[in-house]
Design goal:
The protein has 189 residues and is of the alpha/beta class. The chain folds into 2 domains: 33 residues; 139 residues, Vaccinia Virus protein VP39 (Rossmann fold, 3-Layer(aba) Sandwich). The protein contains 5 helices and 7 strands; from the N terminus they run H-H-E-H-E-H-E-E-H-E-E-E. It has a 7-stranded mixed sheet, sandwiched between helices. Strand 4, helix 5 and strand 5 form a beta-alpha-beta unit. Helix 2 packs across helix 3. The chain is elongated and about 75 Å long.
Length: 189
């Protein structure tokens, strides 16, 4: 009888696991259909990108299409920024919020389910995007307005064609290059 109960418990736990994995995969597929598949970036790469972009303590940082929030986490925990992450996928936002609760700087982080086409990027010092080119093109006007308002835009993976005249640095990489744009007269070093 005890083995039968244990068997049922194991089957129940397996079904719960399968349900969570299925929901998670559906969320990833949903993100892909919306134009922004979830592709995590390694922490070492992130740290280098944020350092090259000149992120400083107290600056406001937004990750557009933040996924699980690891870039916002890095900006807040390593550089002391005030971080915001937006993504269309509510499952990834819930995951990011949960991860933020486990961090001591959780009061410096906010994650929101939002459509980036409708989101206002003004007021941020640094804007990070790792999106497909078609989606970058759709928000490039907003990104240019942010650059004109003294923000730095970091595009990991793909160039922002409309910001070509503001390109300050290209960080080469084996996987994806990173492009840093701003309207400052000096080149970032």
């Amino acid at each position: 009888m005890i083995s039968y109960i244990l068997y049922l418990i194991v089957i129940f736990l397996i079904l719960i696991f399968i349900a969570f994995v299925t929901i998670y995969l559906i969320g990833l597929i949903y993100s892909s259909f919306k134009g922004s598949p979830y592709v995590p970036t390694k922490r070492k790469v992130l740290r280098n990108i944020l350092k090259q972009a000149g992120l400083k303590k107290g600056q406001t940082f937004i990750d557009i299409g933040c996924g699980d929030g690891r870039i916002v986490e890095e900006a807040v925990s390593t550089f002391g920024a005030i971080g915001t992450g937006i993504d269309i996928n509510p499952l990834l936002i819930w995951r990011a919020r949960f991860r933020a609760l486990l961090r001591p700087q959780s009061n410096l982080v906010g994650y929101f389910v939002a459509n980036i086409l409708d989101y206002d990027f003004t007021g941020f010092d640094l804007i990070y995007v790792f999106l497909m080119p078609e989606l970058i093109d759709k928000i490039s006007g907003k990104l240019e307005q942010a650059v004109l308002n003294k923000a730095t835009v970091i595009s990991h993976g793909f160039k922002v064609n409309q910001l070509e005249k503001y390109l300050k640095e290209t960080i080469p990489s084996k996987t994806f290059p990173t492009y840093i744009y701003n309207n400052n007269s000096k080149v970032i070093t």
